[in-house]
Amino acid sequence: MLVLVDESNVGSSVRSAGRGLDWLKLRDFLAGPNTGRDLVEMVVYAGLPPAIPMWQEERDRKNKFVHWLRSNGFMVVTKDGAPAEEGHYKANVDVMMAIDALELSIEMRPDVVILVTGDADFAYLATKLRRHGIRVEVASVSANLGNILRSAANDVIDLAPLFRTFEIMTVQDAAPQVPNRTPRQQQPRRPRPRFRPIATARQAGES
Fold first, then answer.
1. 108 located within any domain
2. Does some domain include residue 42?
3. Residue pair 138/150 in contact by the 8 Å Cβ criterion
4. Structural domain boundaries enclosing 132
5. How far apart are the first and last CA of the chain?
6. Which of 91, 1, 14 is nearest to 51 (CA)?
7. Cα–Cα distance between 171 and 12 in angstroms, integer?
């Protein structure tokens, strides 16, 4: 199984719920031992603040967060942002995520691809993957899930129950917070599992 995460989209969803995103819980929920699925890779796509002095402090915080993700076994793909309207920047990773999804899926032939996003722009990607015989599941919350993407996927995983288990945020910072956990020790890379078809469809909202 391959899991691709739109960091900005899922981060916005969990902040809207007043919670802090627990990345380790998210991974276990989607692909932990209790799911019966073999995770090949979980790839997080994240935009970085522009590499200019006015954004340097926030960029340093974001890079620290990216380092934490990588230290805990996530693959992270980043893109430098560009200044937008006053006080904001734009770092759209959608195209990178879509290209990687097609290339990795064709090369690895996973049984399932989970897109952790509610962005309707990924609907065509879901359709293309299904045309290659790959099951596509979308993980999001209903309030942030585009109807076109919902219809394009084989199944929807409701993240709302999981979000309710995350810690309540008292201060909402612009940059993601590094979870207060010690990075796990480096583990030897597991041999790539042989893919097998899923016997039954996963029900939406199953935790």
1. yes
2. yes
3. yes
4. 2-163
5. 17
6. 91
7. 14
Alpha carbon distance 128, 150 (integer Å): 14
pLDDT per position in the chain (207 positions), as tens?
Answer: 999 999 999 999 999 999 999 999 999 999 999 999 999 999 999 999 999 999 999 999 999 999 999 999 999 999 999 988 877 888 889 999 999 999 998 899 999 999 999 999 999 999 999 999 999 999 999 999 999 999 999 999 999 999 999 999 875 444 455 555 444 444 444 444 443 444 444 444 444
Give the separation between CA 117 and CA 64, rounded to whole angstroms. Answer: 23
Q: What is the pTM of this model?
A: 0.81
| In a domain? residue 172 | no
Q: What interhelical angle do 123-131 and 94-108 show, nearest 10?
A: 10
Is residue 101 a part of any domain in this protein?
A: yes
CATH number at residue 109: 3.40.50.1010
Across-strand partners of 156?
138
